[in-house]
Task: structure prediction
Amino acid sequence: QVQLVESGGGLVQPGGSLRLSCAASRSTFSIEAMGWYRQAPGNQRDLVATISDGGFTNYADSVKGRFAISRDSAKNTVYLQMNSLKPEDTAVYYCYARPRFANTYWGQGTQVTVSS
Result:
C-alpha cells in the first residue's frame, strides 16, 4: 500500500505563490504517473498537472505558465509550484499516484484559498 501525505496549502492573496508537496510512504518505482486534481465546492474533480515516470509533464490550460510540477525521486516526493495565483484557483487539491498494476492512490487533500 502506498500512502500519500500532502502539505503546503493555505491562504494566499491573488498574485501570490504556494508550493504543494506530496510524499509517498513507499518507493514509487511502480508508479507510472503522479500529480494533482482539484475540486471546488459544487464542481467536479479536475486534473491540474501530472508528471510521468519518464519525467514528462502535462497541465490544464487554466494553469499553464503559472504552475510547475516536479519530483524528487530520492525523497519519493512530487511538488507543485503555484505562482500568480488567482481566486479561481481556490479548491481542495488532491495528490494522486497511478500504479502500473493497481488502483490509483489519493492523498488526503489540502485546501488552497486565494483571496484578498
